[in-house]
## 1
Amino acid sequence: MTIPHTFDLPETFTHLEYTPEVARATAPIFDRLRDVMPEIEWPVHAPYIVEINQLKRQRNAIILAHNYQTPEIFHGVADIIGDSLALARQAEQTDAQVIVLCGVHFMAETAKVLCPDKTVLIPDLDAGCSLASSITAEDVRLLRQRYPGVPVVTYVNTSADVKAESDICCTSANAVDVVESLGSDHVIFLPDEFLGRHVAQQTKAQVIFWKGHCEVHERFSANDLRLYRAQYPNIQILAHPECPPDVLAEADYVGSTSGMIRHVDRKRPKRVVMITECSMSDNVAVDFPQIEFIRPCNLCPHMKRITLPKILSSLERMQHPVVVDPVVAERARRAVERMLQVGRGSAQQYAARTLAD
Ligand code: SF4
């Protein structure tokens, strides 16, 4: 989804001061955010928003922001927003020379893998992910020795090294389609155990799991969901498939972040709770003011490392450029591109070829 920035930037403004010009330039953004952000916060964010939007034009840069980024980033400076799959696709299509990835490190690596000729910046190098750090390339090689000939499907929440050892990647939005596309009796699914178990319920393939978990989604319990139902009559509960199985069993809808947004848009429930990272509800609520969003507050500490000051510093200093070994990048790119091809038939052909080798 592309967000147009329709406001005019002032030619000159006092550096990082909340001047009347800055207030005027950012008023249309704040008008959209006033239901999810206290007015007192705006003078802190607005000067950064103006400065970042000006600088990104000068740098021929584009800002990609994941659904879990805070509203001032998501609605204030992002050009492209979405889940991992949407960001991967858009990274490939942009003409900008510089990509600033507001998300976590594996997302920036994925953008670099797909766009090796572009400069990909991540505002904080320590923005990691518990899933990505749960598995190494060596682990994948050992699994291949243990299960020879079994295709490896790897969630995009992994390092480029791990993707390079995989046959095909997937996201939570397309995981079932990717597994089905392989046409294999057995599949190794890495590294998210809960997403893997959710996929296994929807395919005939025998799924071999890894014990990786998202530290945000694993904290939800089925009892949390029962309490929401008791406290908020007629609430629709939407859960991300990185949650434990008993949580998913209690939910009315299970899907990726993009799936949740589509579900809200189509069904227009009166009251909803999204069992996922808590900035997601703020970001979606902006576009659906008539729906009551009950907001669980499980924050991803890695996503929250990205802030407006760090984005500005990243653009000013061109920090931190993501580097991926070209050989690793080439192999990882094949796994990501096979995922992007799913639905067009090529993964099936690829699987037939691999399994015959
Ligand atoms: S929410 Fe979970 S899967 Fe997403 S970046 Fe944070 S730790 Fe990783």
## 2
Amino acid sequence: MFTQPLAGARAIRVVACVVASVVVLFTSAAYAQGERHQHGASTLEISLEKNTLAIRWESPLNDLIGFEHAPRSAKEKAAAQNLLSLLDDPSSAFKPNSEAMCRMVAKSITAPNLSDIQTKHTGDASTHDHDHAVHSDLDYSVTYHCSSPDALSQLDIRALTTWPAIKDIDASLVGPGGQASQEANQGAKTIDLKTIAVAR
Ligand SMILES: [Zn+2]
């Protein structure tokens, strides 16, 4: 059969297709395991340095919009668009106590499977195909400038109210007062910032 050019070409195409499938499966499996992604469970990284409060939140997309593939139907696209609109205002997700006088100075939203919607959202016409991932996370970072960082006492985790599918949030904190780990959940929607805000 290898003397026939047509059959040979077909064989090569078949091999190429099998290789491509293996790569996609491997990528999906590696992503699902490597990201420790468990539906209902989010992580927060909170750091305070001088006047800068930085928060990074990682959540399974499933908890925010009910699916993790690139949106296909009109309903899914609307859900993704709504999520991005909510994240335009960080107080949908969390809010430092007002006494610290924190204002947002930067934010970033990374959600690979929403990138087509996201680029349209921000006016960039480029498109990508990320439909291969089985699991997908939102990675959301917000940086605040706080005029009175010593007065930081509490971070309201409004995300637990905005997105009730979130069950547990593991938070790691670091600041002048040291390091701490805390958990927020549907029964306790705040993180105590006093332990890290002031040097002991
Ligand atoms: Zn998932």
